[in-house]
Amino acid sequence: MELERFLFLTVDGLARGAVLAVFALSLVLIWRAARIVNFSQGAIAMAATYLAFVVTSATGNYWLGLVAALLGGAAIGFVVERGVMRYVSSVNPLNSVIAALGVLLVIQAIIGMLFGNGYHPMKLPFSQSPLPWLSGLSISAYDLFVFACVGFVVIGLAVLFGKTNVGLRMRAAAFSPELARLLGVRSNRMITLGWMLASALSALAALLVIPTELGLNPHSTDAVFVYAFTIAVVGGLDSAPGAVIGGLVVGVLLSWVSGYLGATLSPVAVLVLLLAVLLIKPGGIFSVTKERTA
Q1: What is the pLDDT of residues 235-259, one digit of tens each?
Q2: 3-state SS string over 174-188?
Q3: Are 69 and 204 in contact (CB under 8 A)?
Q4: What is the pLDDT of residue 197?
Q5: What is the residue-wise DSSP string for 40-107?
Q6: What is the pTM of this model?
Q7: 3-state secondary structure of 216
Q8: 3: which residues sit within 8 A by CB, 6+ positions away?
Q9: Contact by Cβ (8 Å): 194, 32
Q10: For residue 165, what pLDDT is reported?
């Protein structure tokens, strides 16, 4: 019985951690593209999820809602970058933080006025019941769907940044925008593309996790953002592998603490982990600062 409980908590933690890893990857992408911690990322993801909710409710088709969330997230990221963040002075780093918080409040207010502050239940494409042929591991069809989505995202990003010209231009614009511009790379366009890609990823993460929680409301991604931000800091804001590994570690930690010690201690455990990493290695466990200063 104890072994079954341990396996259930571990698999559940890995599934939740995989979703948090995708959200953390979106924060890492924007940090690498624009050197900004985007505190409005949760609100952008929440707004895209509302779009998926509307499309799914109108058509009854989850997959159309998924596509709408991805395209909607990318569109909102485009508007936020081109309409707000591009005009924020980089002289003081706090300017971008304040602007991002302003965007967050505006999006939450608009969504609240349109849909109200109540919770809206969302349907899952697959069951959360353990599969009979994997009952010993307590893995559900929805867990497999989550793992498949995260694997697709990780492989897709690795191919994009390692094998394509667009990915190489995005990396060049992130590491040295002025030098990349002199070499013919349209840095501003690459930064916009980074925001669109990151916003689409956060929309995917929100759409994966919100239906398993209480439901959709204007603040449903607040806690997800806090955990994802912790993961990005723990793994290193510059490190995509750090976001993935950190997400899985934090997901399992949350599941174990919640299952054995109580759900109220989960945020405390994450805070202790964050403080420990900041004290021991402030740049994050997988930070790649050396590559940037080389």
Answers
A1: 887 788 888 888 888 888 888 998 8
A2: HHCHHHHHHCCCCHH
A3: yes
A4: 92
A5: THHHHHHHHHHHHHHHHHHH--HHHHHHHHHHHHHHHHHHHHHHTGGGS-SSSHHHHHHHHHHHHHHH
A6: 0.86
A7: strand
A8: none
A9: yes
A10: 87
